[in-house]
């Protein structure tokens, strides 16, 4: 007997993400009502399915079902549940840009191995920098080189790249320091590389375009913003009004950050700190809700977790949802969840992706998403950071402004926002990140500030007309930076 290959699938109604209230209208709906978590499909359906075919999760009595099933049994399931859509589970990824750390170099081919050790220190204090990822390329185009991590003394040991010119060198420290980028460098044994500290009272691109107002200014007050991400906090600059984990099999009450990404995104929107000891988001007075869709042992976020998170954000009364994720295959489930939000008066901002001017990734490419690309400004980050390669044409009407080289483009782009060298909160302190992941919450936060002044819109019934009124409001508060619509959509939101 051939070995069964099990896959995860989502059961959805013919349209939308919610099944009708009355299961008596069809035999299929009556059967669905019996599909609860841990139910074996063979116990409910008139078929001979294996015991491992089971319901893994549900978004509620009327909600979608996540099941495990052998791929070979899909035809039987369709026959048993006619009129349903059966959608594969797919995964999406954070849209933080690290120039090369996610594509590790390959070992040098047919060359002698020469070891070398260097040391990383902080520029002001000369203290060692531990835990920094260092990526050295001897041949950047062919991806040849080596990756290592600094130890507690700041020492980085390479086994293969000594006595060679490094075409490119990338250093990614932990919180509190800027990254480092060098070209055409030959390292000597015991060389010291110094990293610049982050200064919270020096404006980054966020501070340049959206300088913090007075602390008593109600920036975003009365607006609820949901962040669907890796979780958030804890962090002293962030006040979380509520949230959940929607990851299958994990504690729904545990929405603490499993990475750093979600805390950084949330801080761009809603941090309440004060420089030089903290940071302030663009809409610090919003009610911040956090939905963790990334598991503790998974890099990707399931479309099923995203469905649950969007439904919960709508139930919690969120006006705006931020999704700094993408890169997976388009799927009906995520489209229907975004449509569900729209039909319930909630708008979704989504990062366009970081594939280097490739087409806008999904779900930003979906027509009801508000797709946000990333730009930067010269002089808002140190010249020798890993953000330097992201300075690329086209340049704006102000020639210091540029579209980030990593930012995806296309006719689906709605807005552009600062996303290069953005300093925000991470669980261990503060750090500069880059990516359309950073641009997206910038736009979402400014949208919240604009919406907070529009009580007539906020008081509208929660339906599609409300969502459309919000989008029309944004259209009257946007300004082109001169990049052209393929790169910036209608432009950048301004208060």
UniProtKB/TrEMBL annotation:
InterPro entries: Peptidase_S8/S53_dom, Peptidase_S8/S53_dom_sf, Peptidase_S8_His-AS, Peptidase_S8_Ser-AS, Peptidase_S8_subtilisin-like, Peptidase_S8_subtilisin-rel. It is an enzyme of class 3 (hydrolase). Its EC number is 3.4.21.62. The active site is at 229 (charge relay system), 261 (charge relay system), 437 (charge relay system). Residues 220-460 form the Peptidase S8/S53 domain. SUPFAM superfamilies: Subtilisin-like. This is Peptidase S8/S53 subtilisin kexin sedolisin. Pfam families: Peptidase_S8. Belongs to the peptidase S8 family. It comes from Fibrisoma limi BUZ 3. Keywords: Hydrolase, Protease, Serine protease. GO terms for biological process: proteolysis. The keyword Cell inner membrane does not apply.
């Amino acid at each position: 007997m051939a070995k069964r290959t099990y896959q995860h699938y989502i059961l959805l109604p013919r349209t939308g993400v919610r099944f009708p209230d009355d299961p008596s209208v069809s035999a299929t709906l009556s059967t669905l009502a019996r599909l609860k978590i841990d139910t074996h499909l063979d116990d409910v359906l008139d078929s001979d399915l294996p015991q491992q075919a089971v319901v893994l999760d549900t978004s509620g009595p009327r909600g979608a079902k996540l099941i495990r099933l052998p791929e070979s049994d899909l035809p039987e399931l369709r026959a048993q549940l006619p009129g349903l859509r059966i959608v594969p589970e797919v995964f999406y990824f954070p849209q933080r840009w690290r120039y090369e750390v996610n594509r590790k170099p390959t070992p040098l081919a047919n060359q002698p191995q020469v070891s070398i050790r260097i040391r990383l220190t902080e520029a002001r204090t000369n203290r060692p920098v531990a835990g920094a990822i260092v990526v050295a390329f001897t041949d950047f185009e062919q991806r040849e080189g080596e990756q290592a991590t600094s130890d507690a003394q700041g020492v980085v040991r390479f086994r293969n790249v000594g006595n060679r010119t490094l075409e490119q060198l990338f250093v990614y420290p932990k919180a509190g320091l800027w990254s480092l980028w060098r070209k055409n460098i030959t390292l000597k044994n015991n060389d010291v590389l110094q990293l610049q500290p982050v200064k919270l009272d020096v404006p980054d691109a966020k501070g340049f375009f959206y300088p913090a107002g007075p602390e008593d200014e109600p920036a975003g007050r009365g607006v609820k913003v949901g962040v669907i991400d890796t979780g958030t906090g804890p962090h002293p600059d962030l006040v979380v009004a509520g949230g959940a984990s929607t990851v299958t099999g994990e504690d729904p009450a545990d929405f603490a950050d499993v990475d750093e990404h979600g805390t950084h995104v949330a801080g761009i929107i809603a941090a309440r700190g004060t420089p030089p000891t903290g940071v302030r988001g663009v809409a610090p007075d919003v009610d911040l809700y956090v939905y963790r869709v990334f598991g503790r042992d998974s890099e990707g976020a399931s479309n099923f977790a995203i469905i649950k998170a969007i439904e919960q954000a709508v139930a919690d009364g969120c006006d705006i949802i931020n999704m700094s994720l993408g890169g997976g295959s388009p799927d009906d489930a995520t489209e229907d969840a975004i449509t569900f939000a729209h039909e319930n008066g909630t708008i979704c901002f989504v990062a366009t992706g970081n594939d280097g001017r490739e087409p806008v990734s999904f779900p930003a490419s979906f027509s009801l998403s508000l797709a946000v690309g990333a730009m930067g400004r010269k002089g808002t980050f140190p010249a020798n950071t890993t953000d330097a390669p992201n300075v690329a044409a086209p340049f704006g009407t102000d020639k210091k402004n540029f579209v980030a080289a990593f930012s995806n483009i296309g006719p689906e782009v709605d807005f552009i926002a600062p996303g290069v060298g953005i300093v925000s909160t991470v669980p261990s302190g503060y750090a500069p990140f880059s990516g359309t992941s950073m641009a997206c919450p910038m736009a979402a936060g400014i949208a919240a500030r604009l919406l907070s002044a529009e009580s007539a819109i906020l008081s509208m019934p929660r339906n599609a007309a409300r969502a459309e009124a919000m989008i029309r409001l944004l259209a009257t508060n946007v300004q082109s930076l001169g990049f052209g619509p393929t790169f910036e959509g209608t432009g950048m939101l301004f208060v």
